[in-house]
Amino acid sequence: MSYAIGALITLLLMGAVMITTYFTEAFKVTLVFGVPFLLILSAVYYGFFRKGRAKASNRALA
């Protein structure tokens, strides 16, 4: 259960950093490029690793 608390705290702190970044004029551009990059990176991870893991588990069951 402690791993879930650590992940939640990390999520909250990352959100706080992103919110305060928006109010800092010099770093506002990082949100324009950083958020789409994170979404693309997550999609690539899901496409390459999560689907591959599901295929491997299906082969193990057969």
Task: Give the secondary structure arrangement, pairings included.
Elements: H1 2-22, H2 28-61
What does the model show?
- The chain contains two helices and no strands.
- With 62 residues, the chain is mostly helical.
- It has one domain (2-61).
- The radius of gyration is 17 Å and the shape is flat.
- The mean pLDDT is 83.
Précis, in short:
It is built from 2 helices and no strands. It has 62 residues and is mainly alpha-helical.
Overall SS class: mainly alpha
* Spans of at least 5 consecutive residues with low confidence: none
Q: Estimate the mean pLDDT confidence.
A: 83
Helix content: over 70%
**Tally of discrete structural domains:** 1
The profile of the biggest β sheet is: none
Give me the count of strands. 0
- Compute the number of helices: 2
C-alpha-based Rg, rounded? 17 Å
What is the straight-line distance between the termini? 33 Å
Please report which band the strand proportion falls in: under 5%, 5-15%, 15-25%, 25-35%, 35-45% or over 45%: under 5%
Sum up the overall morphology in one term: flat
N-to-C order of helices and strands:
HH
